[in-house]
Amino acid sequence: MCVISIYFGIRIYNANENIHLTELNEFDKVYYDDITLVPTITFLAAVITLPFILAIMVLQIIAVYKSTERVVKNIAIGLTGVGLVILVVDMLTISNPEGFDFSQWGFVWICMGLFIIAGNLLSFAIYRFRREPNQQPLTKN
Length: 141
What we know:
Helix content is 74%, strand content 0%. It is mainly alpha-helical. It is elongated.
């Protein structure tokens, strides 16, 4: 989801920033999307990332119910909230692509997606390297 968001964010950012450099871009044979296509590309980005967001939400909810570690469960609850923020922004973008330009709101996808990745890696590390209550500390004999 983050990679897709970065791709569409770059396309939209280039279309917004290079509108006044069309002659130079044509001279250098560099072609960007037209500024009139920004709402369409924004809508396309929101629709393409929607299945990923829904899958992330389902997996986070499963993690909340299946985890036995309290710390991991709390992280999963927090990441479900993060996924909900992304889902709300995605729905707002689908409903109004002109008002929620992806060049500005796409950072929500990218940053929150990175939070989800980091939180899940932290949860995995906590779950994988936890110590059992009756486990002896590691010492050299």
